[in-house]
Amino acid sequence: MQFCQLAEVFDRLESTSSRLEMTDILSDFFRKVEPSELRQMIYLSVGRLHPEFYPQELGMADKLVLKAIASVSGRTQKEVDDLWIKLGDPGEVAEQMVAKKKQMTLFSEPLTFKSVVEGLTLIETATGKDSQDRKMKHLARMLHDSDPVEARYICRIVTGRMRVGAGAMTVMDALATAFATKEERPYIERAFNITCDMGLVAETLAAGGMEAVGKIGVAVGSPVKVMLAERLRSLPDIMDRMGGKCAFEYKYDGMRVQAHIKKGEDGFVKLYSRRLEDLTHNFPDVADALREQLKGTEAIIEGECVAYDPSNGSLLPFQNVTHRRKKHGMDKAVEEIPVKIFMFDLLYIDGVDYTVKPYSERRAKLKDSFAPKEEGLDIVDYTTQAVITDEDQAQEFFDKAIASKCEGIMAKSLEDVSIYRAGSRGFLWIKYKKDYTQALVDTFDLAVVGAFYGMGKRAGVYGALLMAAYDPDTGRFGTACKLGTGFDDAFLAELPNMLEKYRSEKKPSSLEAEMVPDVWFVPGVVLEVTAADISISPIHTIAFGSIKEDAGLGLRFPRFTGRVRDDKTPEQCTTSAEIVEFYQMQEERDSDESEPSES
Ligand code: ATP
């Protein structure tokens, strides 16, 4: 296949914001592509050569890309750099410069899809001495043969700016349209949720149909999308919802880790964050302990890594464990910031998929699968758990969790239906935190989609940010507040740097917004925000029409908590449904408070 056919599809996707239209464009295209090429195309559509959980080293600095553009366009470096300052996107610079080059050069061959993948692979694998120069030359070779639109996408891919607007939900809709039925769509989604590999699912489906997709299973080495909890505003509400009986576990304030453990000669241990980053190098002590203490041969477990004070064993808040994420001096960090893993789930062990088994079975098997450490301190532990049957027990367990420096509790269903629902948020797990007992319901994790230049003391830096939540049903973001408090000077100084690679010349196609900031960003950075309450908003677009026709919902008096949620992707931030839920909880709370008491 010629690369220009794929570039044309990217271009058409980028120029529409209609999910239906994107689905049509993609499904038509999928039918024409060889299954073996489809896999790689799916990866490339999000700017990758591999699935999301595989570390990618493709990122080229803008300066290097501009050098390659200058070398093939016959323009001076200054002309290219000046255009980049004006446009901000090396992809658009390449497009304009290559359009001019076309009038001058005759000896170029059309790019094939295969040759582009080969070129990108050479860029990714170039290491060592002169590697920057070699990367630049590999890129220049591709640009020499590309047309303007191809050049745009190649430069976006190598600089990590590839965003054509079609999210995972749209790709799955298109796969179902092209190769299956609407009714079979949930099975495609399940295959994706248990492998996190859309390329694999697409190739399997295109080559072998739904029968082959049905055979895709949970496997060590392929991360599983995490199961998430709903929230309720009181312990009695939780007991009620759980039918009077459920398990309670301490809710630890640490970092969620999914561990894939395989023993033997070809063995490995990989620890994944909930956004599929490989955290193994941050927790080498945890990885070793899990490998040593696993009784079986291979397993996938989940747990919370929590820092503790070695002098008295007391658990420390989340911020402490994040220090482990610094890239340098890991030996020192392991010593200075000891952590424990509190395991809470088992997804797979020795050939058996436990995600389809109820909670009690998973918990019992988990507790049976690790041997205690023979001597010295055991850093592998289990979450404290008890079966709760009445409200007094619930309150007592919650108080103990808080006294043990936990955030609250996780209530877990004991019903037969309580399987591990990969990638979904539901009432099989319900979280209840200390914060819920105060006026406000919970924190919000919102994506930065815009910035306003500061004034006065904040002149020269961004003074406020436009923040958005996500609607998984439409695959789009909607604004929820303008955030201008809670920032310290160091954070404000760091912000432009943190946001630069997400900068966009226009409003991102995945965003609904009425408010217009000075600078747009495609959703990338997620910040934790608190607010006084939620109100109906004429200007914000999240949950538009859900509570009131022609209005969205907005956070009042939002404040940054100081926590950058770099463990979350923008698609994992607070959803529009959760904001509606918060709003309704707040309305109920307010009406309860205004009711006269019985005495
Ligand atoms: P969410 O994970 O629901 O999107 P969040 O990341 O902001 O939200 P919380 O609202 O604090 O996190 O609660 C869920 C998280 O609690 C889990 O993702 C997990 O990291 C953590 N956790 C701590 N203890 C447990 C436990 N016993 N069982 C399950 N999760 C737990």
Question: What does it look like?
Answer:
- There is one protein chain.
- A hairpin with a 2-residue loop joins strand 6 and strand 7.
- The strands form 4 sheets. Strands 12, 13, 14, 15, 16, 17, 18 and 21 form an 8-stranded mixed beta sheet that branches. Strands 3, 4, 5, 6, 7 and 8 form a 6-stranded mixed beta sheet that branches.
- Helix 5 crosses helix 6, helix 6 (90-102) runs antiparallel to helix 9 and helix 10 crosses helix 12.
- The longest helix is centred in the last third of the chain and has 19 residues, at 576-594.
- It is built from 20 helices and 21 strands.
- The structure holds adenosine-5'-triphosphate.
- Adenosine-5'-triphosphate is lined by residues 228-229, 249, 251-252, 256, 304, 344, 383, 410, 431, 445.
